[in-house]
Design a protein that fits this description.
The complex is a heterodimer of chains A (687) and B (112). Chain A is mainly β. In chain A, strands 1, 4, 6, 8, 9, 11 and 14 form a 7-stranded antiparallel beta sheet that branches. Chain A contains 8 helices and 37 strands. Chain B is mainly beta and 112 residues long. Helix content of chain B is 12%, strand content 46%. Chain B contains 1 helix and 7 strands; from the N terminus they run αβββββββ. In chain B, strands 1-7-6-3-4 form a 5-stranded mixed beta sheet, with no helix packed on it. Chain B has a two-stranded antiparallel ribbon with strand order 2-5. In chain B, a hairpin with a 2-residue loop joins strand 3 and strand 4. The longest helix of chain B is centred in the N-terminal third of the chain and has 14 residues, at 2-15. Chain B is elongated. The chains are: A mainly beta (687), B mainly beta (112). Chain A binds chain B through residues 412, 559-562, 565, 572-576, 602-604, 606-607, 629, 660-670, 685-687, and chain B through 58, 60-72, 81-90.
Amino acid sequence: MKRLLLLILLLPIFMFGQSGEGYINYKSYKTHSGTGSSSTYNGVTYSGGANSTAEFDAMVDTNQPGTTLTHSGEVSPFGGTGLNGGHPPKWGGSYFAIVYSGWFKPNKSGTYNIRTKADDSSETRYREVGTTEWQTMTYHWGCCSYRYGTATLDKTKWYEFEFRYQEYGGGDYYYFAYSLPENSSSPIYNQVSSNHPFGTWTNVEPTTEETHELSLTYELHTDLDATKFSTLIYYECTDNAGGLCPTTSTLGNNGTVSFDETAISTDQVSTGTYSAETVDGGIQYIYVYNWDSTNERHRVGLDKRMFNTFGYSGFASGAPTSLFQSVTHLKFYDVIDEDVEYKSNGTYWAEYWLNTRITSDMVQASSSTNRFQNGSWSGYGGVAVQSIDFVLGNSFAEHTLNLSVDGTYYNDEYDNVITVQDLVIAFNQLTSGGSGPGNSGGTVFSTGIEYVLGDVNEDGSFNFVDTQLMLQHIYGDTDPFADKTFGDVVKIFDSGYDDWSTTNWNSGIPNTTLDSYTPNSSTFEQSKTYQVAFMGDVNFSHSHEPSNLTTAAQSMSVRYSSAKGSSNDVEMNMIKDGEYLKVSIEIPINNHNITASQFKIYFDSSKLEYESSDISSESIPSFTTQRSKYINIGSISQDGSQNLNGGITYTLNFKMNSALNSTLGLLGLKFYELVNSDGNIINLKIK
Amino acid sequence: MRKYIVLILFVIVSCQPEELMIVEPLPQYEMIFEETESSVTDGQEFSFEIISEEEHQLVISKDGSVIAKESFLPTLDINTKKIYTKSLPTDLLKLELINSNGVIKSTFIQIN
């Protein structure tokens, strides 16, 4: 009874097998008639070990009198019956050949190093699904040593494979090993196994239906954490009836993100325009003027009665001009299948321009009318068609892409986007000669993008109004950029970033963090790359640096200077004095020609209240500005004529709201910058 | 009969409440410098041992540049202080205990 039950349980396995992922096919042949003798069929002979692909083909050709298919079935690629041994069922210990076949999809894209070892001759080959020519990974006409090769593979694609070896006498085996693309310079081979599967293996032919994919890359400044950024993709997804389909994805560490078809649906929506397509017949409804070689166009007229299909009568009486304008394409028999441009409409005809010449040897049918004319309908200026179908145009829905960022992260980072170095560089640009302040006045900027970012009020002109705003942002009583959102201050460029014009820089500037994308029906996999920049950030402390940047003062802002210790280090002290907590920052006497300094002292406003500041020297204009989370203190000589070589001490006084035994961390110097007259950062440590 | 008396005695003795000893809990200190790295939150207390009464400093820095300091006169043995994090960068920072001889203890703190 138990045996019967077991048989019932196992029956489905015997009946239906286990085909699919995790299995590959094998065929096992008795060769050389099982005795070592040669075989000939149709003039092709094999003997001994295979010495070519053709001889191997013959060896596994069952038309050969010496070859018999003895076993076939499926095995796991990972075990001894598969590619890690080469021993599926076979007729005997000599004179056999094994052919493994199926499909694989690799786990990674790139160039794999392949290593095989077989006894005796072997061939390891593959081809991309849809192609016909085998690519050889390795082969060996002989026995027993490692054979090495490569295979350049795409992890999104399926490949058909045929791995085969034959045994004439003695030992017999086949082993397949690979090294991942990232180790190509120094391969590390893994024998294929369940722990090192290489990819997905199957003995069921995979479907290769293509899907849309959009890959985005946002080139951010390398110091920014790309994972704090997200991109939203959305589109009107209900055929112009309203409703949005949004999908949001966080960027990867390298600023990339991919959307598959579930996010970028290929649903078509109406374009609202029509293609006018002729239907054969005997009534003239179209005329086409001869080619106008001066303006390079045909003039085409459509009989307005054809527009009565939209509910009008007569010559489309009462139809709005917009109806005639909505025809943007003309399909006229098999001679015209082109876009047209609306020209005008009169009493009887709606006219269009066709900018593609129908044929260079078109015969003018009537010298009097200078247009095509049906001969059997002389006197009428038209070509006979039965009717015109107005086919509503469709297209894939346009998708909107929008880059966004974590709010807290943005607030922290934007605090330090525009600093005294930006200000000094911007001032230097405006005061460094040339034709005067404005679009191309200075000699400091080396790229068009610097002008774009320097034009903080986005009026198309970079001038002292912009530097005044930047200056106010740093130490004005009110910050003109206080209400700016991420979308206001960040721009994403999809082209031209690395060679933006320095003279015509104010044209073609992207408006926001938005862009649009329409799935392309022929190019299924599409990609876009954006460069991300912050307005005002002319020193590129937070913006992607254009490759053509040669501006000398391009060093990044240093939040935490790592300069080697020197006697010129800046001394900072935080002292509790009764109910007050004081922080003093002393720039010692030096020879660095520092013309601008900026220190941001963040304070815990729940425990401290800012009261006052003291600045030890009036040799250079200085500032103290209270912002919600920090006090901004420093000095700047706008024309670079004064510096801090004589040293200076800045002191800030805070009152504690209650008696505190500990004060560590109530104040934090989270940002500082020291800049010389050339706009270069002076790397001094805080000690 | 004796068996019953013994049984009753057993019951009586076993039902008497135990005398509970009240154990004074030992103070728990977060000896921050004994760890190579700690995650700290705003207002968190931490302790360290001091062996001289001279002025000491607690210094928070990143890449060799100071971000925050506190100078204080310690008591001998265990000292307990608080750290406030709202004004510190979200980062892995170095915390050092310094006296006139230089850095005497050091660790890393992760500000979240």
